[in-house]
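Minutes, project check-in
Item: structure for the 145-residue chain
Input as provided by the requester:
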Amino acid sequence: MAVVADILMEKGGYVYAVDPLTTVVDATQLMNRHRIGALVVQEGGHVVGIFTERDVLTRVVAERRDPERTFVEQVMTSDVAVCYTDTPVEDVAAVMKAQRIRHLPVLDQQDVMIGLISLGDINAYRVRHVEAEVQYLHEYIQGRA
């Protein structure tokens, strides 16, 4: 059974993070520059929130806030679901579906953030492994395995 650590080994564990007093403009520019959909919000080395594209739409644009004068801490999601390196990938996907979220910070056993996993990461991992299995089965049927 695949676990979160398997995905992090393939994609790497780098996480883009900001502090709570980053302006929404600066945060969204960082997201655009790196083509990512979420930033982890950290304070004192601890995860205090997550700032996502959905937060921009629902809490900034829809509420007509000035992104140059709004801080991430005012519009981030502060009740953050997390997962661990040994969490089964299927459990992470189930949490994402149930909570209608697309990103989860990954913590190690000491509760230190070591990565961020997205629904896109899970889907890409699944596709790679299904393709490998199909190739193996094809070769097996052809008598080459």
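Outcome recorded: The longest strand covers residues 46-52.
No further action items on this chain.
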